[in-house]
Amino acid sequence: KAGVTQTPRYLIKTRGQQVTLSCSPISGHRSVSWYQQTPGQGLQFLFEYFSETQRNKGNFPGRFSGRQFSNSRSEMNVSTLELGDSALYLCASRGRSGKPYEQYFGPGTRLTVT
Amino acid sequence: EDKVVQSPLSLVVHEGDTVTLNCSYEVTNFRSLLWYKQEKKAPTFLFMLTSSGIEKKSGRLSSILDKKELFSILNITATQTGDSAVYLCAVGAPRLTFGTGTRLTIIP
User: Fold this and answer.
1) Which residue from A48, A104, A108 is facing B95, i.e. has the nearest CB?
2) pLDDT exceeds 80 at position A1
């Protein structure tokens, strides 16, 4: 069974630009969560989508947004990039039958903002 | 706001030693506690615990949860160099709050 996939794996952007990251969950999983990981703040929750609806949102500014499609694939968008947005962005999917709260992470997208 | 504290922050041991990693937490509504292993890539799922006193085991790794005292431990026996990683503890479901992790280094 294929794991969580994320594209692209690496990205370099300039301040002020916007970026879109993509995540495909494990087949059959309907929930996708996004996390930001930085050396200073560790892993922080961004938001969760389930059946195309945002169900939870972390404490991030409105520049961070996301959506989920009918096939459960999710995208995350960051507008007006700042240097502090440089981070590893991880998505996680869950929904395994009988174990709905086990979350499995994808390889991440390493975003560098210059 | 949920809070997770892991200790120690880092640990260096020799191959073959046994280690115990600690995770204490504060949550408003406990659902689960999860352990992950992170090397130079994404976190790999190890265990999820929801009930007190029930030990989860996978090979040389085991974990137990104490919901009364609000902590969990992760034990690794007969450590190997491949166990070198950051071990992360998280609580909540589905929104996870992570600790800062314990960096474990195994010396051959």
Assistant:
1) A48
2) no
Q: Smallest Cβ distance to B45: which of A43, A45, A102?
A: A102
Cα A47 from Cα A50, distance rounded (Å): 10
Max alpha carbon distance in chain A (Å)? Answer: 44
Over residues A69-109, the pLDDT tens digits come to 999 999 999 999 999 999 999 999 998 666 777 899 999 99
CA–chain centroid gap for A84, Å, is: 17
Taking the C-alpha atoms of B6, B9, B12 and B16 in order, what is their torsion angle to the nearest 10 degrees? 10
Residue type for position B87: Y
**Which residues on chain B are in Cβ contact (under 8 Å) with A105?**
36, 42-45
Could B32 and A101 be called an inter-chain contact, meaning their C-beta atoms sit closer than 8 Å?
Answer: yes
> Which pLDDT band, with edges at 50, 70 and 90, does B31 fall under?
confident
| Both tokens assigned to A36 | 């930001």
d(CA A57, CA A48): 7
Q: Are B30 and B97 in contact (CB under 8 A)?
A: no
